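Attaching the record inline, Q. Sequence:
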Amino acid sequence: MSRNFASTAPALAANTFARPQSAPMYSSTGLDVWTMMNQVAASVDAVNLGQGFMSFPPKDFIKRAAQEAFTEDANNQYAPPRGRPRLLEQLAARFAEKLGRPIDPGSEVSVHAGANEALLSAFTAFLEHGKGQEAILIEPAFDQYTPNVLMAGGKPVYVPLRVCASKDPATNTISSSDWKLDYTELEAAITANTRILVLNTPHNPVGKVFARDELEAIATIAQRHNLLVISDEVYEHLTYATDHVSIATLPGMWERTITVGSAGKLFGVTGWRVGWAIGPAELIHPTLSAHTRIVFTTNTPLQEGVASAFVQATSNGFFDSQRAEYERRRDRLMAIFDD
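Structure, as predicted:
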């Protein structure tokens, strides 16, 4: 005996029901700046200076570090949310030397899915939705800061860098150091709702390396207004004829600074997506909690690859040779511009 299971309900006209709608922040998002630059450069066969990754391969010892990590069975399973112990120890040792203080790998370091995710985790941990809390961004700025702040429920507030008034671009070569922050303008942008100041040094995109006296002025303002400083230092090794200073080394700033870094930029492996956050346990714990909710953990084998690369880079002089190679490329490009 056969049965007809066809519905006896009346047929519904097309488009009877409303359709799901995305949040306005995402429905109105256009192309990111990298995609736009790539498309424009490709259309005219131009050298792409807006590219976010290196146009040359990583050193062989770095690639081998990743290859060897994949052959270890344990490296193909979840890592602890904070990060693989070997990488945490390498980062703690490296930043203890850099910041001039002991770093606890079990409480003052967290590993992230790239520096961008470390930034998002920090914003998420220290900005609350619906409270109108603000983050100061120094413009021009890396284009991920604004959407990350908005995703975390915050409000971006912009303070510009400006070229020294004494330097006329028509008659002077403008150096990255000629871009200056007006501290009066910075302090005027701070309100009762301001929670975070984002510092980027060396700066993307202008290349400015903030000098110690500039960092001291920023630190004074941050302490006066009880601001968390999120210091994006992914280009820490790419400085020429000037020293990179971490704001966390200044008096009273370790306690209120999260320092963010990136293996992608240090080793020229942007596709590995391994970054980190360094700071006091009181700041890293909530950042790690946010990270655990956002991605849970960072890929295991490439954490091990980065740890191995750090060990080898310490003994083979990689960072010094890398800087020299970049400097030669820079000098060649500048000679073309000057010609």
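The CA atoms of residues 53 and 270 lie 6 Å apart. The two ends are 91 Å apart (CA to CA).

More tomorrow.
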